[in-house]
């Protein structure tokens, strides 16, 4: 099973990086390419944060925190997977789900680690501009030129490109706090292959939680009973 996990992780990382490099080198900022008209498109942006564009803030420390969190999470998942493989009792589905999450987190981490070292930070691209705590672009007080975001190792932006363009139909009731209203996009977030891998992995764990962990819980209970009887 260990070899299969390595193959899964390697394949996801390879596909993820091939797509990102192609988009970054072949598409212009905010350029869109329809894939399935009215449903799905490629739309090139970069984000400073997590899956689906969520961020911890606009400054360097927010980005450092996120990158370090990814590193810690990846190491933690790797240690847990190694433990499961050694015990040789974990369901294959759980190992596959963890592999998907590991590969997705590693794929986005590669962007943060390497992309600023490979490509120059273009000041003409909006995602390369510094953003203050108020969420607004920052400017040099003397020249009034826009400031470039912190850049370098661990500070690169993540390349996103996938977007669903399906909208709510005309008969949809308006639910403002959920953003549901006729004509609005059903799922407007822009994401990448690594985000998809993480989402599928998490979804598999949620849907199969009892199947994946019930055996472990039963083992703990039986061990506890055995200990009580021996006492």
What this model shows, in words?
This protein is of the alpha+beta class and 231 residues long. Helix content is 51%, strand content 10%. It has one domain. The chain has helices at residues 2-26, 60-87, 92-118, 193-207, 209-230; strands at 32-36, 40-47, 158-164, 190-191. Helix 1 (2-26) packs parallel to helix 3 (92-118).
Defining traits:
disordered C terminus; four-stranded antiparallel sheet; about 230 residues
Outline the fold blueprint:
Elements: H1 2-26, E1 32-36, E2 40-47, H2 60-87, H3 92-118, E3 158-164, E4 190-191, H4 193-207, H5 209-230
Helix pairs in contact: 1-3, 2-3, 3-4
Shape: globular
Proportion of residues in helical segments: 40-55%
What portion of the residues fall into strands of 2 or more residues? 5-15%
- What is Rg? 22 Å
Tally of structural domains: 1
- Please list the strands of the largest sheet in the order they lie side by side: 1-2-3-4
Outline of this structure?
The protein is of the alpha+beta class and 231 residues long.
